[in-house]
Amino acid sequence: MANIHIKIKNLREESHLKQRQVADYLGISQQAYSYYELDKRELPSRHIVKLAQLYSVSADYLLGLEPEQVESYNLNATFIKGVKVKDVLISLRKLNQSNKQEAMKFLSYLHSTQ
């Protein structure tokens, strides 16, 4: 379970949640949850399952068996201020094939200029 503490902290922050909120979801104290993020306590399997559900990722991803979040994304996560990931995907799906290809070229260009 190497680096699970980093993953759960990153996922929590990406979801704009406080440790207290996640702890309440798990039914534990904020301090107990904090120990998981600090890698001071091992995360029980029952909490791994609940966290995977909360963040819409696989338990395998949390455990490091999948290198990246492959098929599961939190569609309600904020993409940019005021825009959720699902809104971006909906907009992209509305494009015709040619415009989808142009959008991907533009995204590649933007990525290369960072």
CATH class of the largest domain: Mainly Alpha
Structural class by helix and strand composition: mainly alpha
Within the CATH hierarchy, at the fold level, what is the topology of the largest domain?
434 Repressor (Amino-terminal Domain)
CATH architecture of the largest domain: Orthogonal Bundle
Query: What's the overall geometry?
Result: elongated
Largest sheet: 2 strands, antiparallel
Q: At the fourth CATH level, what is the homologous superfamily of the largest domain?
A: lambda repressor-like DNA-binding domains
Relative helix content: 55-70%
Major sheet: arrangement of strands: 1-2
Distance between the termini: 33 Å
Domain module count? 2
Number of strands: 2
Instruction: Report the C-alpha radius of gyration, rounded.
Output: 17 Å
